[in-house]
């Protein structure tokens, strides 16, 4: 019989890549989608016709229990979150509820539906993946960051993710649940939301190249991140849930680039000189910045056999090409309302 997976955050970047990957592995895939008329659900259905949709919200415990009862999953991937860091300062309480407490509600739904009690054994239970984040490292205490690097989150988002991370670990220890967290570093793609810096840059470059814009406004150009391709990272999520033992893993490339280098690479990919178009804007700086993030993905390489396949330069070129095509064809870039 086909394995069954339930994915929260199905309308997001990772939800779409993960669903594609699991369908390719012969899974029956269920996606939790919220709202009664969510346009992102229709878009997801066009891209992923084979995904079965179940309505629910990470703010609503009963809906999560119903979703688990209906989908009868072998594996649950909790990707749903308020995931844009600047929004977490403006809506800190909502971020805590969705990104933090949402993890508790999903774990409780699984625990209740599978009748798990303290000291239970992980065999035969629903396996749980939590989308933890390198934002938890925040002001880093060492570089590169590993599974044992201390957390010092710098945003309400990072704090909420740290809660979800420790809770997942706690349910594993308290109830013997197969519950793991992937500590994923930034990962991008042509499906990335337009509010995140890589996509903001690739769309900005495409607009300038096509004569639709004259400048690109950005915040801190000195921040450094470890950027990889989302398609590679969802494979790691699946490998974690198929491993013999439930353990947490850091997933990243081990290479760090600055926003300035990202900008340079993207404008170069379109044959443009970035210094003519980029304007820095103090209003786009964050109240507390994460200056640098760089993964040490050795554990995932050794224990899961996971490796990223796409370089930073290939990723940036792919995103710029994709946005040039999208805008030339009159497609909808799906811009958020964030600057
Ligand atoms: P994304 O594109 O922003 O997608 C977020 C998803 O969460 C959307 O499907 C959204 O659904 C859903 N969601 C928001 N509020 C919800 C609620 N109340 N109930 C149920 N679902 C809700 O994020 P992503 O880049 O795919 O990331 C996936 C996960 O990995 C997130 O948890 C993120 O924090 C984490 N993460 C991402 C990265 C990265 O670099 N991409 C790195 C580390 C960790 P709607 O369409 O209804 O809004
Ligand atoms: N979004 C954005 N917009 N970021 C900018 C801009 C701008 O105009 N200018 C500079 N930056 C800098 C930010 O200050 C930050 O240091 C860096 O670019 C990356 O910002 P984002 O792309 O918004 O991503 P993030 O690192 O804050 O968060 C992403 O990665 C996390 C994993 O480390 C998100 O996907 C999180 O959900 C994820 O957990």
Automatic annotation (TrEMBL):
Its EC number is 4.2.1.47. Keywords: Lyase, NADP. Its cofactor is NADP(+). Signal peptide: none annotated. Residues 6-319 form the NAD(P)-binding domain. It comes from the Bacteria. GO terms for biological process: 'de novo' GDP-L-fucose biosynthetic process. Gene3D superfamilies: NAD(P)-binding Rossmann-like Domain (3.40.50.720), UDP-galactose 4-epimerase, domain 1 (3.90.25.10). It catalyses: GDP-alpha-D-mannose = GDP-4-dehydro-alpha-D-rhamnose + H2O. InterPro entries: GDP_Man_deHydtase (IPR006368), NAD(P)-bd_dom (IPR016040), NAD(P)-bd_dom_sf (IPR036291). GO terms for molecular function: GDP-mannose 4,6-dehydratase activity; NADP+ binding. Catalyzes the conversion of GDP-D-mannose to GDP-4-dehydro-6-deoxy-D-mannose. Belongs to the NAD(P)-dependent epimerase/dehydratase family. GDP-mannose 4,6-dehydratase subfamily. This is GDP-mannose 4,6-dehydratase. The lineage of its organism: Bacteria, Bacillati, Actinomycetota, Actinomycetes, Streptosporangiales.
